[in-house]
From TrEMBL:
InterPro entries: SUN1-5 (IPR045119), SUN_dom (IPR012919)
Domain SUN: from-to ranges: 1-88
Gene name of the record: Sun1_0
GO CC terms, sorted: meiotic nuclear membrane microtubule tethering complex; nuclear inner membrane
Protein name: SUN1 protein
GO MF term list: protein-membrane adaptor activity
Length: 88
């Protein structure tokens, strides 16, 4: 709801997984990732921001392999809110 440090959903370690279950099947055209801007952090360091990430489409949350929709890189020197088009 806001951009204050600590109001986020952080992953422990250097890797993580997230599954979002929707109420109906969709065909996404893009994804967005937002991270707090460097200017709002006392250290000016956002190494906790995602860097390399992949997005997969699944038929259900128990599916082990999905359809790769794209592999992306979050630009830590770019805008806090970044959009990534589906590559498939």
């Amino acid at each position: 709801p806001d951009m204050y440090p600590g109001n986020c959903w952080a992953f422990k370690g250097s890797e993580g997984y997230l599954v979002i279950r929707l109420s109906m099947k969709i065909y996404p055209t893009a994804f967005t990732v937002e991270h707090i801007p460097k200017a709002l952090l006392p250290s000016g360091n956002i190494t906790s921001a995602p860097r390399n990430f992949s997005v997969y489409g699944l038929d259900d949350e128990y599916q082990e392999e999905g359809t790769l929709l794209g592999q992306y890189v979050y630009d830590q020197d770019g805008e806090p809110l970044q959009m990534f088009p589906v590559m498939v």
